[in-house]
């Protein structure tokens, strides 16, 4: 890895941190602004951010091999999204906004019970920790192969940057 590669990688990480600081909330703005972005975020950036969140390193590194080995049936996920998005946009989002829910788990707690809310929250958290470990480890292995930099160090740096800009800037920094 030469100097230009290090500069590009460092600039990318520094930009993420600066965005988190720039979008960071001011003291006293409250959790709602931090979590919901103050309700003032436009549709296009939020939509593009959600689409990008589905395109993890696992998708980018693994999908070509999946299609090569098993065929192109993955396009059916796109069909499912086209059918589900209008349902979610026309029914779920208005209900969540009207009731001022911050998550589906809040709905589970009101609709079913606090036990259901707790169990689904714990299962989601467990699933997300495992998934994000893989999402960060896959590109760290690729960078390790190209540069020789320790994989654990790369994962630690990526985690620190992601946690930092999310903690500082809230949902606006993520979008």
From TrEMBL:
GO molecular-function term, one example from the UniProt record: symporter activity
Compartments (UniProt record): Cell membrane
Superkingdom in the source lineage: Eukaryota
Topological type in the membrane: Multi-pass membrane protein
InterPro entries for this protein: Na/Glc_symporter_sf, Na/solute_symporter, Sodium:Solute_Symporter_SSF
Database matches in PANTHER family: LD47995P-RELATED, SODIUM-COUPLED MONOCARBOXYLATE TRANSPORTER
Family as reported in the entry's similarity comment: Belongs to the sodium:solute symporter (SSF) (TC 2.A.21) family.
Record protein name field: Sodium-coupled monocarboxylate transporter 1
